[in-house]
Amino acid sequence: MTYRPAHRLADIEPFHVVELLTRARQLEAEGRDIIHMEVGEPDFPTPEPIAEAAIAAIRDHKTLYTQALGLPELRAAISAFYGQRYGVTVPASRIAITNGASGALNLAFAALANPGDEWLLADPGYPCNRHILRTYEGLPRSIPVGPDSNFQPTPEQVSAEWNERTAGLLVASPANPTGTLLTLDEIAALANECRAKDGHFLVDEIYHGLTYAPSPKGTCSAAQEVPLGDEVDAPTACAAGDDIWVINSFSKYFQMTGWRLGWMVIPEPYVRDVEKLAQNLTLCPSTPAQYAALAAFAPATIEILEARRGEFRRRRDFLAPALEAIGFRVTARPEGAFYLYCDCSALAADSFVLARDLLEKTGVAATPGLDFGSNEPEKHIRFAYTTEIPRLAEAVSRLSAYFGR
Ligand SMILES: Cc1ncc(COP(=O)(O)O)c(C=O)c1O
């Protein structure tokens, strides 16, 4: 039979970094020591109490389908978490448990996107957004963002880009690949702009919890250390209105990437629509993973996660100045997630060529800007600090040697 994939496949690109990863694995197989700074997932194992809860659930045969929107106890636990951590009331009835933030984004666009609708997305941004959107026949429209607005879209840009085909806006805070945050005022202003246009507003909060003290400079140093316990977490978009779609996940802060579990706060009128879609598209999220996640909010688990958050911050505080000393420029304020999005134009003409050369010559793997959009990708490269400080130090010394610094 003739090979005849759906037309939409023409617009779905692979992750370019996969090519690099394949080469990294080849080099590792040949015995080379590769430092993985391209990886977008925590290097820590899932906390023990979560793993134990999963094992107990499986032993107790809690392995049947749950309701399509998820276990009522877990939806209630997430609702309570919003109250405790952010002081906001989010009713459990508006919370859907999903197959990761990916599952939430699929359900949101399946519920909202019409063929030919345009959706505003920040560039650079998480690449899968535009491909998920395209799968549901929506069209991504990029808003180029840069250092002027800390790599986040502004209401003025949203207003300027909006046209009669625009259906909504998706932002992320903390963002990938930059780690930048939106303040509550900024979220509220973007929400107002969308309301004024009668459009949808989606906020991806997958890196929530992984936030660090803000720095007035662009990079952060240990000298600016603030005790973690005294920090106010990034504001949740739930505080800016109940018409906002808020996407979250157990993948990053809770360190459960492979469990495939996330959630979404849905504006009330759409809850039934998402439920119908979830019933048909996935039946339910993984049952053992949902029972495991019930242990995610226990004080013993949060203690483990907060200690790890401290470690992520120490890594960031080590890596940002070290990369700047080599000649990379950290132009996005890295206040969250575990990424440094660096301007490498003073060091190389094309970050994709640079990433390949760094891998071959130094064994340091990083993600070129090309994966995150078309807004000056050749000038940027993303380093993930998802590896421990001695390995980061080794990477810095290899990079220093490569650039002769
Ligand atoms: C900004 C952003 N959103 C969503 C996802 C999807 O994550 P998951 O499906 O594991 O929750 C990722 C993964 O890296 C991400 O960086």
TrEMBL record:
GO molecular function: transaminase activity
UniProt cross-references to PANTHER family, sorted A to Z: AMINOTRANSFERASE, ASPARTATE AMINOTRANSFERASE
NCBIfam families, per database record: PRK08960.1
Alphabetically ordered keywords of this record: Aminotransferase, Pyridoxal phosphate, Transferase
Cofactor field: pyridoxal 5'-phosphate
Protein name: Pyridoxal phosphate-dependent aminotransferase
Organism for this UniProt entry: Dechloromonas hankyongensis
Organism ancestry: Bacteria, Pseudomonadati, Pseudomonadota, Betaproteobacteria, Rhodocyclales
Family: Belongs to the class-I pyridoxal-phosphate-dependent aminotransferase family.
